[in-house]
Specification:
Residues 1-27 form the signal peptide. The chain has 556 residues and is α/β, with parallel strands linked by helices. 33% of the residues lie in helices and 14% in strands. The strands form 6 sheets. Strands 1, 2, 3, 4, 5, 6, 7, 8, 11, 14 and 15 form an 11-stranded mixed β-sheet that branches. Helix 6 packs parallel to helix 7. The chain is globular and about 70 Å long.
C-alpha cells in the first residue's frame, strides 16, 4: 500500500493512471485515459459528444493524434498529450527536436484545444529501462521549448511513473523508491517538478494489489466500501481505502528523496496557493470479466470519483496527520481512469476489457462523473457514523484539534458559554462536538476525523449535541462559469430535482441567471438527498451554506 506524497497525479481506472491538480482547485478532478488501440472505436467527434454527455472535463491521450486534438477544439475539455517512449531519446539529446515537436504537436493547436499538460514517456522505468537516464533531460528540453513559446505557465510537463517504482509501499510511512532510481532519477525529477510547478504523476493499480493479496486486502477496502480500516503501525494512522494508503506511500517516497514539497499536478494546485505537494494519478479498474466482477469495478470507479471530488477538498483543508509529519501540504489529488473504451487490439489480453464504455459507447457499468453514485460515500465510512474526541491524547492535543476544527469551517456557536451544547463544559465534550461538525461537513471522509490522532470514528451516535441535523442549503458557485453551471443544472434536473419553479413563468424563474437557476436546482437535489455533503458537490460547482439564501423573491 502507499501513502499521500508531495504533488501527485494519480491515474485511475479499473487501473488508476495519473491525477491532475489545477490552480485554485478546492477539490480534485476526474478524467479518463482515451486509448485507441482498437479497430472498432467511434469517431473522435462522436467520442467528444460522449465526454460532454458524461460531464468529463479532462482526458489524457497516449500520442498527439491530430484527429483527437482537433475534435476537442473549443470544448473546454482539458487535454494531456504524450511524447511516446520511442521519441524520448531524441527529445533528450536534441533541444531542436524538442522545440519542433512542441511546435508541431502542442503550439499548433493551443489555445483552441485546451492542452494543459505533456506527458514525456510512459512508465519508462518499466517499459523502456534503457532510457531511464534520458528521462529528465527530455522533460527539461520539452519544458524549455514550451517556455520559449511562452506556454510554460499554462502547459506543464511531467511523466507517468508506475507504482512499481516504489520498493516499499506498506506501511505508507516507509514508502521509498527503488534504489536504482531514487537518487539518480527521482531526486532530479522532483527538483524539476518543484522548479516548474508541475505535478508528480503516478500510475496505481489497486485491483492488482487485491488480486495479489486477497487475504489481507479486502474487496471493501479497495472499492471504497465501509470497512474497519487498516492501521500504519509506525504512525497510528488508519486508512479506510487502499487508494489513500498508496497515495501516502508515494508522498513519503517523494519526501525521502527531496525534503521540500512538489506541486504534483499538471492541472491543479493547492487551494491555498502554498508550495504544497500535488498528486496526479491514473488508475486501472481491472474489470476483465474473468477476474473482477463488474459490481466491484462500478463501486471502485464511483467511489474514487466521489472520494476525489469530495474528500480531496476535505483533505486539502486538513493539516493534521501524515501530511504534517511528512512536511508536505495537503494538496488535492486528481485522477484519470484507465480506460475510456475496451480496446480489442491491446497486446496484453488482460487490458482489453478495462473500458468504462464498449466501442458502441454503451456503458460497461454506470459511472457518475459529477458525484460518483450509488451507496459509496467519499470515504467508506458508513452513513451512520460520527467523529468523537479521543480523551487519551490529553487536553493540549484536544484543544489544538478543537481550534483547528472551529477555524476551518466547523460551526462552534453551540459550544460557546450559554449555548445549547456548552454543557458539559469539558475539553473532550467540546472537541467531540467541533470535530464531528467538521467531519459531517466534509462528507464523513475518514481523514476528516483524524486530527493528528485525536479523533475516532464511531458507529453509534454519541450522547452529545448532534450538529448534523443543522439546517443547510446548497448554492451554486458563480466563479466556475456558466458552462459548468449549466452541466450541473441539467444533471440535477435530470436526476430527481423538481425544476418546474425555474421554468419560464415559474415562481422562481426571475432572476433569469445561470447561478440563480443552478442554486435552486442544486438545493432541491441536495434536500431530497438528505443534505448529504456529496449531494452538493456537482463537480465543484456547488457549495453548502448555513444561512437560508434568497434568490429574487424565492426563499430556498
Amino acid at each position: 500500500m502507499a501513502a499521500p506524497a508531495p504533488l501527485l497525479v494519480v491515474l485511475l481506472g479499473l487501473t488508476l493512471l495519473p491525477l491532475l491538480f489545477f490552480p485554485g482547485a478546492e477539490a480534485g478532478e476526474v478524467g479518463v485515459c482515451w486509448g485507441t488501440v482498437a479497430d472498432n472505436l467511434p469517431s473522435p467527434a462522436a467520442v467528444v459528444q460522449l465526454l460532454k454527455r458524461q460531464s468529463i472535463t479532462m482526458v489524457r491521450i497516449y500520442d498527439t493524434d491530430r484527429g483527437v486534438i482537433r475534435a476537442l477544439a473549443n470544448t473546454g475539455i482539458k487535454l494531456m498529450v504524450s511524447l511516446p517512449n520511442e521519441q524520448l531519446a531524441s527529445a533528450a539529446s536534441s533541444p531542436p527536436f524538442a522545440r519542433q515537436w512542441v511546435q508541431d504537436n502542442v503550439a499548433a493547436f493551443y489555445p483552441t484545444t485546451r492542452i494543459n499538460g505533456v506527458a514525456v514517456g510512459n512508465e519508462v522505468f518499466d517499459m523502456a529501462k534503457g532510457l531511464t537516464q534520458q528521462l529528465v533531460p527530455a522533460m527539461r528540453n520539452v519544458q524549455a521549448a514550451l517556455a520559449g513559446l511562452g506556454l510554460d505557465g499554462a502547459i506543464k510537463v511531467s511523466t507517468p511513473v508506475a507504482f512499481t517504482a516504489l520498493k516499499k509501499s506498506w506501511p505508507p510511512s516507509e514508502g521509498a523508491f527503488q534504489d536504482d532510481i531514487a537518487q539518480s532519477v527521482m531526486r532530479p525529477m522532483v527538483a524539476f517538478l518543484r522548479q516548474t510547478g508541475s505535478p508528480f504523476m503516478i500510475n496505481v493499480y489497486p485491483f492488482r494489489a487485491y488480486l495479489d493479496d486477497p487475504q489481507h486486502i479486502s474487496v471493501a477496502y479497495w472499492t471504497f466500501q465501509p470497512n474497519d480500516g487498516v492501521v500504519d503501525p509506525d504512525t497510528g494512522r488508519r486508512y479506510y481505502n487502499l487508494y489513500d494508503a498508496q497515495m501516502d506511500a508515494v508522498r513519503y517516497a517523494i519526501r525521502s528523496v527531496s525534503p521540500g514539497s512538489v506541486r504534483a499536478s499538471v492541472t491543479t494546485q493547492d487551494a491555498g496557493g502554498n508550495d504544497d505537494d500535488i498528486l496526479l494519478t491514473s488508475s486501472e479498474i481491472g474489470c476483465s470479466d474473468w477476474k473482477i466482477p463488474k459490481k466491484h469495478c462500478k463501486n471502485f470507479a464511483n467511489g474514487l470519483i466521489a472520494h476525489t471530488l469530495g474528500a480531496s477538498s476535505a483533505r486539502a483543508k486538513h493539516t493534521s496527520g501524515l501530511l504534517d509529519s511528512v512536511g508536505a501540504g495537503a494538496g488535492a489529488t486528481s485522477a484519470y481512469i484507465f480506460a475510456l473504451f475496451n480496446e480489442d487490439k491491446k497486446s496484453d489480453d488482460s487490458e482489453r476489457n478495462f473500458g468504462l464504455f464498449y466501442p458502441d459507447m454503451q456503458p460497461v457499468y454506470d459511472v457518475d462523473f459529477v458525484h460518483g453514485s450509488g451507496p459509496v460515500t467519499p470515504a467508506p465510512a458508513p452513513a451512520s457514523s460520527w467523529c468523537v474526541a479521543n480523551a487519551g491524547v490529553g487536553d493540549a492535543r484536544l484543544q489544538a484539534a478543537l481550534d483547528y476544527a472551529c477555524g476551518h469551517g466547523a460551526d462552534c456557536g453551540a459550544i460557546q458559554p450559554g449555548a445549547r451544547c456548552f454543557s458539559p463544559d469539558t475539553k473532550v465534550a467540546h472537541a467531540t462536538y467541533a470535530m464531528n461538525d467538521y467531519y459531517q461537513r466534509h462528507g464523513r471522509a475518514s481523514q476528516a476525523c483524524d486530527f493528528n490522532g485525536a479523533g475516532s470514528i464511531v458507529y453509534q451516535q454519541p450522547s452529545i449535541c448532534d450538529p448534523s441535523q443543522a439546517a443547510s442549503w446548497c448554492v451554486a458557485r458563480a466563479e466556475v462559469g456558466d458552462a459548468r453551471l449549466q452541466a450541473a443544472l441539467d444533471w440535477a434536473c435530470g436526476h430527481g430535482a423538481d425544476c418546474s419553479a425555474i421554468q419560464r413563468g415559474g415562481r422562481c424563474f426571475d432572476p433569469d441567471t445561470k447561478v440563480s437557476h443552478a442554486s435552486y436546482a442544486f438545493n432541491d437535489y441536495y434536500q431530497r438527498n438528505g443534505r448529504a455533503s456529496q449531494a452538493c458537490n456537482f463537480n465543484g460547482a456547488g457549495s453548502i451554506v448555513y444561512q437560508a439564501p434568497k434568490i429574487g423573491n424565492c426563499q430556498l
